[in-house]
Design brief:
mainly alpha
């Protein structure tokens, strides 16, 4: 549950010309391709989120004991941090390190979810995604690739790769319906 502790992304199935331009480690080399991967990952993740009944959002589902709400708040936090870091990259031309370690950031995100409703958590997450996506659109392809594709790696680690890491936490088991007439 950290930022870039992941295996580099692989190009999506159904490769396109943009996929062919991906960096050697699989990160997209253009903002357009990055946005395509972000959007695909987000749509799948959000579809899984909206299938969860609100009363199931307080179930503990992660290895660390987080509830679904806390995990979604964690996603929101990393969206927001990535937005900030990209803004500073665009302003200074330099990569931006995190102020706190991953564990501190994740613990703060989990605490912030306590007391919020599932609807508030999801609304915050959707807003943070929109804000981050707009920030990614502002990047140039050169900024995306600068410094060994730092921006591409940070964005991937905090969007589509991050969603893939947590999609299993959103699994809701199928509930068999009782046969008609039985109660």
């Amino acid at each position: 549950m950290s930022e870039i502790e992941r295996v580099p992304s692989q190009p999506a199935m159904g490769s396109s010309e943009a996929d062919a331009r991906a960096t050697p480690d699989g990160e997209p080399s253009t903002v357009r391709e990055l946005l395509s991967r972000i959007d695909a990952g987000w749509l799948a993740f959000l579809a899984a989120v909206v299938r969860i009944p609100g009363e199931w959002m307080d179930e503990h589902v992660t290895e660390g004991g987080w509830t679904r709400k806390q995990m979604l708040a964690h996603i929101t936090t990393w969206h927001d941090l990535t937005h900030e870091r990209l803004g500073r990259l665009m302003a200074t031309g330099k990569q931006v390190d995190l102020r706190d370690d991953n564990d501190t950031i994740n613990a703060r995100a989990a605490r912030q979810a306590v007391g919020k409703t599932a609807g508030e958590i999801v609304k915050d997450m959707e807003a943070s995604f929109g804000k981050l996506r707009r920030q990614v659109q502002r990047l140039s392809d050169d900024q995306l690739q600068a410094g060994d594709a730092w921006a591409a790696q940070v964005v991937a680690g905090n969007t589509y790769d991050h969603y893939a890491e947590h999609i299993a936490d959103l699994h809701v088991p199928q509930i068999a319906e009782e046969p008609a007439g039985r109660r």
